[in-house]
Amino acid sequence: MGQTITLGEMLRDHCSLYNGALQERRDAYRHASRTSIRYGMQSAQLKEIRAFDPERHGRWSFSSQQATLHRLDKAFQAFFRRVKSGETPGYPRFRGVNRFDTVDFPKDGDGCRWDATPHDPVTRVRLQGVGHVRVHRHRPVVGRVKTVSVKREGRKWFVVLTAEQEQPEPRPRTGSVVGIDLGVANYLADSNGGFVANPRHGLRNAARLEAAQQALAKFPRVRRDKRTANHRRAVEKVAGLHGKVRRQRLDHAHKTALGLVREHDFIAHENLTIRNMVRTATPKPDPDRPGAFLPNGAAAKTGLNRSISDAGWGVFLTILHAKAESAGREVIAVDPRNTSRQCPECGHTSGDNRTTQAKFHCVSCGHTAHADTVGATNVLRAGLVRLEAAPA
Length: 392
Description:
Number of helices: 12
Oligomer: single chain
Number of domains: 3
Number of strands: 15
């Protein structure tokens, strides 16, 4: 219990450092002739901050505080990068104590120490200012630990490690190649005619999540020190359900990607711009009635966006590329345009070829197949062309 309180204080003080550094950047830009403050300038002030307030900042790891400032700097870099590309991003925001859940230690041995004996089930991690914390290790750590992060999820605490490993041996060749087409009706269709059902984890838990959010909404907005135990339990209930959906989605993505990597030497998929796909429908002003708008299909687009987000394509593709690299497999992303409209038999491309969401019927040669299978077949062919054209 004592270490839990101390870990919470560590998060609170790092959150305070993050918000203070953000406030300094905002003030400098607004009131000092648009002066920009960089990470190096704020990192140089850490010694003075630690000496001025040793109780709140002096007892924690110096390198972990640098990592917190670096996190803020990355947020600003991302903000300015998106501004230059013509987007309208939100300005970096202050973090509430309950929304600042991770402290990073950039180097094992600097403010932290991962202490694990290979055959000893009891593992500890030493954190500066906290002490030795017991860790329930779910699997052995392979390689040399490079970085350590402490993360809070609800009432649970996790230690996240990155380790440097030797290059693993490639998996034995299977001689098989495959193209995949991601969707919402089916999670995945492959060029061999196989399908992976969409588990729809978010939809399956929607009713319980809605009930939990309604229960939380009954509590009025009050200050943190005025919140009751029932309010805290309602917050934890909502957070727990969101965490369950996230873990289910990750588990499904890992298992699906692992199956593909084990069975195929080469995998081709569509190069999807998911951020653009889940944008809200653009309003259509009514030219005859100022201030009014024409129907734009926003409700249907919202449902589609929710289904795309629930499928978690971005997470799956990230996991697929990582597993393929470690297994010595090749993964290529191809242009998704017309992959579901082009006939794989005669090459005729037309929007009329896809009569329904699932049915493909070529108006030129009469070829009939499942539309997702046709898409996966065309993705595989495009991927093989790119593979052959790639320099050796």
